[in-house]
Amino acid sequence: MQILHTITCTSFVPAYNAYEQFTHHLTRPRPLTLQGIERMFKRGCDEYPARAGINVLRVELAVYVR
Asked: Does this model's pTM top 0.70?
């Protein structure tokens, strides 16, 4: 069983003096907590490099079996 996390985030872009909104997708065997996702983005993970200043807005989970 795998869990697909669809994570909606924002990040401040100083050049435009605005926030950009983007979506990341992660697959894990267990659900991640909101604090765990924020820490993972600050430290970096296999799929995405570390980025400071990311705000997690929404997390959607979908369970599927391979």
From this structure: yes
